[in-house]
Structures
1.
Amino acid sequence: GINPGRLGAGATGVPFTDTIRLEQICGLSVPGIKTYETSSVFIYDMIDRYGGPEAFYGDHYISSVSPLGFTVTGRNGRQVNYNYYDSRKLTALLMDFILDSLRTQLEFGIFRDTCFCLGSGKNYRFLSELNSKHRFFDRIVPLEHPRYIMQYRLKEKQFYTDMYVQKLKTGGQ
């Protein structure tokens, strides 16, 4: 992913997981907080089609390029998510931290042949540039970001969940 969203991993610590799905699907609760994130809806529909949380998380590890989430105050005065790449200054400030975080996570022993990048635009370009310099993964396969799908391609959601599952089960083929 990009970086934790305030209503998903920013609240639960689990990427693309709001408190509703964390409790209803994973059986874990975050007392005193109730969040809903559209990306979480897509991811857990896809996980269900994959075979459920045990099967999915037994095969895959989800993380974000930046493990830190950011917000800014929107025009309406409410907090909105802010991406690590929305400001060159922020990206530059985070670069060493992002690299250290990626290296630390790779030490978990995850397979490095294929990385699925959730986000086929700026996130994919940034991760691809990092990868060309540091060779974290053999290849990176871009997937449309769940938020994009839920916001702009909702009528095609079934196509995208099927495509995710097919690519995840075949190593991106």
2.
Amino acid sequence: MINLVNRFTGSVDISPAFKPRPNIQHVVFDFDGTISLIREGWPEIMLPMFEELLPHVENDTSESVRKMLFNDIMTLNGKQTIYQMIRFCERVAERAGVPEDPIYYKREYLRRLENKINGRIEGLLNKETTPEKFLLHGVLDLLNQLEK
């Protein structure tokens, strides 16, 4: 498995020049990926799924296929998931395969991702893990500073 994310373990410093701004009343975060890491590792779900479902052609190596698919996934990172699924359908067709509808692949991907997320949620509910494990490093300090 490719290690897609090297976890950041350094410190997060708030600049000494930081001054609370009492006029600020709202701060907006993109919670998923900015604060919460509960969905972290999504490429590690998508990539193996694509590898599994992609038709093989002559001269394929697992490394070349993995590299191609990983590039497709990351090139479209930040866009809606359906675009990665559309690109995957194009790859299937390029290999003389008959792709399913992109929605089919998206549903399968979300089913697999949900299994991973549910395992994490279960760990939180059973207190087998802590919420901090799924928060961006240093975010609680940042939120506390913003609250002041």
3.
Amino acid sequence: MSLKYGDGAVEVSLPRSVDLGRGFRRIDPIPLPPEAERCARDPMAALRAALDSPIGTPPLEQMVEPGESCAIAVSDITRLWIGTRHFLPAIVERLNRAGVPNERITLVLARGTHRPNSDAEIAQIVGEELASRLRIVHHDPDGPCTYVGTTSRGTKVEINAEAARCDRL
């Protein structure tokens, strides 16, 4: 079994008799459906296809106006396994093509209560090229937030103040 760890993985071998906790047992792999197999073989092609034909919404390029400001929330170094550096360039490229310049794109590092990330860690998260091109801010859970509404259950919702100032999030 392969467990994600940092930028890589740790291989672990467990005997079949091991109970993985509260009703979970080791199972044999289930074959992927054909569409999932295609995505696994070429994830970037799958990403491009999803961006070209999103479900239930217009493509990104049709949702933004030239010159608008955009905030993109990205996970911090503790979620490096998500692979932001692999898919974020495609999103930024589409924003650029739609007329949103790099200076109008802010990446908000959603670090929760974790420490701020170093410049080297940010380059690992978003890639060196985007780290040098885009404005990056660390969300501070104790910093300024903007009230944006209340849920149907009465919970007040606040978001990062810098993200709230952008035209699109």
